[in-house]
Amino acid sequence: MAYSEKVIDHYENPRNVGAMDKDAKTVGTGMVGAPACGDVMKLQIKVGDDGIIEDAKFKTYGCGSAIASSSLLTEWVKGKSLDEVQAIKNTDIAEELELPPVKVHCSVLAEDAIKAAVADYQSKQ
Amino acid sequence: MSDIKTPIYMDYSATTPVDPRVAERMCAFLTPDGIFGNPASSSHSFGWAADDVIKQARKDVADLINADPREIVWTSGATESDNLAIKGAAHFNVRKGKHIVTMKTEHKAVLDTCRQLEREGFEVTYLDPMENGLLDMDAFINALREDTTVVSIMHVNNEIGVIQDIAAIGEICRDRKITFHVDAAQSAGKVPIDMETLKCDLMSFSAHKIYGPKGIGALYVRRRPRTRIEAQIHGGGHERGMRSGTLAPHQIVGMGDAFRIAKEEMATENDRLLMLRNRLYDGLKDYEETYVNGDLEQRVAGNLNISFNFVEGESLMMSLKGIAVSSGSACTSASLEPSYVLRAIGRNDELAHSSLRFTIGRFTTVEEVDYAIAQTRAAVEKLRALSPLWDMYKDGIDLDSVQWAAH
After folding, report:
1. What whole-number distance in Å separates Cα of residue B290 and Cα of residue B285?
2. Would you call A33 an interface residue with chain B, using a CB distance cutoff of 8 Å?
3. Contact criterion met (CB < 8 Å) for B312 and A39
């Protein structure tokens, strides 16, 4: 599989790897995918009082493009409002990373992950 | 370790480089000053010279398996040999019956051939292997019927390297007068094969798995008791009518030399490969949640197929910069399905996704193995630190109890 330099960069130097306290009221956690399918993404956001995402962390089990998609997403969501991040489309991610067609589902997973994290945060408020 | 030349090739089950001794000799059979004649040209010396080298190569191939040279039919490779053997025997024996028995872990060249025969009205039983990858002999005997005409079982599996007991399977087939075909693409030159004692009627070989060229193979067709097959390729009646087409002396000489060298060096080479394979495994086995796929004892020396749970195979390979290996991960296949061989031996999807196949060979060095160990360890540690599944496992969460949203 020939990956773009951007995928390789995110894979080699993943941004914002880690975990936050999933029980904290200010933290929203989204976990999507399934081990049987070969990819699971866990994305966490920490939301400030002003409704802006202060921090984001991820952990991903999956191929290089799944890791890159979630790494890129954590960069994108920081400093944005919940409304703004919910507008992120998988096609934006696929385009930025130049994902081959067979890997587009990794970007779909990333879009699902941020939506799930926002939903989890909102359910706590 | 810094003077190591990368990329390092550890995918010898996919193909091998041609041994330089073989490649050099092959060049003498192409150009005007070489032996370029058509071996079927019986009217002049160009043809006779080519025919002589074919005879020697036929003997070299036969000698490795203790067979008669007249039992060797040249083909384009093991895929063609598998097709010729299974279709040829099934079609020839069609009046006796239309039932074929094989295994789910066979190479696609056997499985797809059987699928085609099913479309033609044959019935095929695909047996499950046991968890160690070996054939369950009781299940095998139970699968045989009055109308079973062909059994096809591979000698060594290409993914997990396990060695089937073809001697025992052959006895059972011979008792029932069933034609027994063995795909030996991965075993010739690695496991001793003696056609004098084996009750095997048809056996497929490939040159490029044992340091010969690609594009040439052979089918062994037993003379006593005589095994009959129907030709699949017609035109000229070469190879006693079983496989027409002008013979390729440079390819055939390459295969003959590769088989001759294999016979001479197999014993010492196997000792060395086993030492290297054990070194590789010893360097990796201390990780928890690490599984060897397939039996570790009944296995060719050069194969290590290993799953590192909670990391995904394709991303593992991305981290193994400079090492060429293969994975059972879906992400490495066009179909997005994980390895059917690992699924057949009962590995769940996660472990199939997490597998790496290292296959080492004649040109692998100790330094390369040590480099592979260091790279693999770094990759596994990096990816487990990145894996939410590893965290969950460490927290004592049973991953099977989690409701995953499959996609």
Report:
1. 7
2. yes
3. yes
Report CA A49 to chain centroid distance, whole Å. Answer: 22
Which parts of chain B sit beneath pLDDT 70? Answer: 1-2, 330-336, 406-407
Interface of B with A (CB under 8 A): 310-312, 314-315, 318, 329-332, 334, 336, 338, 348-350, 353, 383, 385-391, 399, 404-407
Task: Find how far residue B31's CA is from the centre of its chain.
Answer: 33
- Is the preceding peptide bond at B7 cis, omega within 30 degrees of 0? yes
Closest CA to A14 of A43, A34, A46: A43
Give A67→chain B minimum CA distance, Å.
8
- Tokens 């040209």 found at: B41
Residues B183-241: pLDDT tens digits?
Answer: 999 999 999 999 999 999 999 999 999 999 999 999 999 999 999 999 999 999 999 99
A17-54 burial string, b = 16+ CB within 10 Å, else e?
Answer: beebeeeeebbbbbbbbbbbbbbbbbbbbbbeeeeebe
Beta carbons within 8 Å of B357's beta carbon, 6+ residues apart: B11, B13, B159, B160, B303, B304, B305, B325, B326, B327, B328
Count the neighbouring beta carbons within 10 Å of the beta carbon of residue B119: 7
DSSP H or E run through B291: strand B290-292
Q: Identify any residues that bridge with B307 across adjacent strands, giving them in sequence order.
A: B291, B355
Instruction: Please pick, among A19, A24, A37, A52, the residue that the annotation labels catalytic.
Output: A37
| B381 token code pair | 């540690």
Instruction: Report chain A's C-alpha Rg in angstroms.
Output: 14
Provide the β-strand partners of residue B72. B220
d(CA B356, CA B345): 16
Single-letter amino acid, residue B347? R
| A41: β partners | A32, A60
Q: Is A26 helix (H, G, I), strand (E, B) or coil?
A: coil
Strand, helix or coil at B220? Answer: strand
- Residue B200 is among the residues annotated as catalytic for this protein: no
Instruction: Compare all CA atoms of chain B with the CA of A32 and give the residue at the minimum distance.
Output: B405
What span, in angstroms and rounded, lies between the C-alpha atoms of B313 and B330? 8
In a 3-state reduction of DSSP, which class is residue B304? Answer: strand
Beta carbons within 10 angstroms of residue B395's beta carbon: 7
What's residue B380's pLDDT?
96
Query: How many other C-beta atoms can be found within 10 angstroms of the C-beta atom of residue B336?
Result: 13
CB pairs under 8 A between A and B: 88
Blockwise average pLDDT, block size 10, chain A, 125 residues: 88 95 96 90 96 96 94 96 95 94 90 96 94
| pTM across the whole model | 0.93
ipTM of this complex prediction, to 2 decimal places: 0.94
Contacts of B383 in chain A (CB under 8 A): 61
